[in-house]
């Protein structure tokens, strides 16, 4: 595995030197003008709330218990990073199918509201030192190292204090959510229940509202609280982990978190901060810029032209993600080209009227996102995952191991090939949007796998270009183009369904029970007053809380 400084240098050089590279991204075919049904609007952030005496603080996360954990740390004097780490460990308890100690993730930190000082952290899973991807797809987990690195770099509360809410949730128990009850009965759930008695009290899968006590997970978290993050990699927990195919002692001990300057992209009066490759931050910025160039702002939100404009932008970004995106420690990624607004405007001018995305069997829609802003203005956007539901299904020490390395097979391209120490392309996409004074105005992310770029672009477009409130933007029906099949969330207006069918799309209606369209966890920041606005996405178990002021 390359040394930390070498890996950071490679990531930085990729962003600087590749302006001159010739991208392998094909140019889309001849142009069409996206029709409009409403006059264009300029950037319209959330209407400013009544000025507050003091800045507010808040947490948006995938479960109310995780929000409560983050808010508790903020109220006890911790900062946004402390709160995000606390919420992440709490999510590991209440959403064992989504993220946790056996997985990985990525975060963007904007210290004290200063976008110029922003740092992104990649603590996703890597291929072991032998270069072999096991049948389970399990990679060396980075979650614990990531949480430890974030806390060491930015935290101000004691490490043990930050883990305390999650330890209490695991030891004392918490009511199972409706989504957990569903997950235990579908897909891999029945097999999971058969192996773990705490998930099948009385011989039946845990039901909604029934108490889930996870004593083994509580013991593991106490070990981490007392011995520090390194207990996972070289300490008391490592021996158990090395019994898992794909994990060995040397690879565990050598795991490194990568940090650096976020991907940055201009977007009208905004600047978007996104995660480094091999995560799709650069293609997502590209998608937003192409949508801007296609004048999606001039379409009626949710209309056929709106859906077609965003989907056309997705075809460009999807091609980039599927051809040139990879781990920058191993391949050159043309980041500067991908986030060049002038180049993306030229690409937008040549998007075909019948543009189709790549097709993929990638069904990893399982992730969790946490957004936090504290009263000093520090913002954290954090996306963590096990990849598929319950990851690989392998269980050790109270938690599930990831199957992140399956992404090498699901996203096949010359830029995404497994080798020792390498990370795969996947779809996690934490974002922070800055105003023209480099202050955070939107902290956002979502689960949803391959659908994440469309989810986030749709919400951003409604909020920034159409002046909708965050709540309106989050509640609006979602969509995703796969090939020439337009997947529409149930609740989409019938005239839109019929209009898209008339345009030649194969329309597929997706029920809420599929959990396909994510759960946006976001906070809008008024940079003048420090006031926060959040919206709880009803598609999963999301919650948001704002206090202070």
From TrEMBL:
Belongs to the gamma-glutamyltransferase family. It comes from Georgenia satyanarayanai. Transmembrane segments: none annotated. Pfam families: G_glu_transpept. Residues 24-57 are annotated as: Disordered. Residues 1-19 form the signal peptide. Keywords: Hydrolase, Signal, Transferase, Zymogen. InterPro entries: GGT_bact, GGT_lsub, GGT_ssub_C, Ntn_hydrolases_N. It comes from the Bacteria. Residues 24-45 have a biased composition (Low complexity). GO terms for molecular function: hydrolase activity; transferase activity. SUPFAM superfamilies: N-terminal nucleophile aminohydrolases (Ntn hydrolases). This is Gamma-glutamyltransferase 1 Threonine peptidase. MEROPS family T03.
